[in-house]
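User: Reviewer 2 asked us to show a designed sequence for the structure in our supplementary figure. I'm pasting the structure tokens here. Could you produce the per-position amino acids so we can include them in the response letter?
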């Protein structure tokens, strides 16, 4: 059997999905408006998309509110422009619980190491659970667009977690490709969307050049 990279899989899958009569339902796990801009543009004509915002990793709450507010504004403009009705599911925010049950134990990990892998896994798993309970056909995450995040690592984590959710397909992605990053940067600048300078948790705040 031919072995495909995740990006080749993504391209072939899109061509296959374009031929379907009805759009499959996709839950798109999201971290912010900028990272969501290209995945929405790229996939809205192929999938019936719902955005899933589950980011209790973000500190402090003012930052969380800012990122979520920007996402709501962006999606509202996107809906008006494209005449679609994409909704955002917002999970409750609880950084204290996220920190005490997980982050604190990994506070000495370097960014991009185990702590971050586990952080992706927690949020991806929650998205799979929601997608499974609400009968979505596919789940994906916009996190693969980040220059600071390894797309293969994210896809491998999702691939492993997907085994527990046999009725939900994981849509492998590398949203960096296809000039996805250029689109996100251009969109952020032209619409004046807030661009954070750190990933999310308090342990990432010192890295001022961190790009989610
Ligand atoms: S740096 Fe980002 S991905 Fe890593 S643990 Fe903190 S919030 Fe999660």
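Assistant: Here is a per-position design you can include in the supplement:
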């Amino acid at each position: 059997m031919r072995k495909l990279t995740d990006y080749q899989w993504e391209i072939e899958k899109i061509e296959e999905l374009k031929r379907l009569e009805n759009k499959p339902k996709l839950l798109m796990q999201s971290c912010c408006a900028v990272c969501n801009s290209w995945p929405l543009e790229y996939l809205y004509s192929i999938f019936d998309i719902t955005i899933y915002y589950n980011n209790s990793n973000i500190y402090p709450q003012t930052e969380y509110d800012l990122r979520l507010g920007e996402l709501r504004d962006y999606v509202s403009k996107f809906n008006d422009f494209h005449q679609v009705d994409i909704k955002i599911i917002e999970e409750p925010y609880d950084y204290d619980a996220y920190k005490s049950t997980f982050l604190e134990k990994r506070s000495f990990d370097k960014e991009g190491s185990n702590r971050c892998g586990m952080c992706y896994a927690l949020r991806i798993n929650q998205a799979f659970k929601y997608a499974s309970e609400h009968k979505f056909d596919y789940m994906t995450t916009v996190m693969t667009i980040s220059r600071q995040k390894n797309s293969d690592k994210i896809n491998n984590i999702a691939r492993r977690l997907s085994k527990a959710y046999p009725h939900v397909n994981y849509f492998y992605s590398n949203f960096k490709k296809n000039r996805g990053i250029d689109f996100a940067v251009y969109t952020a600048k032209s619409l004046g969307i807030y661009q954070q300078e750190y990933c999310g948790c308090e342990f990432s705040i010192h890295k001022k050049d961190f790009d989610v």
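For the response letter, you might also mention the following. The chain is about 45% helix and 10% strand. The radius of gyration is 16 Å.
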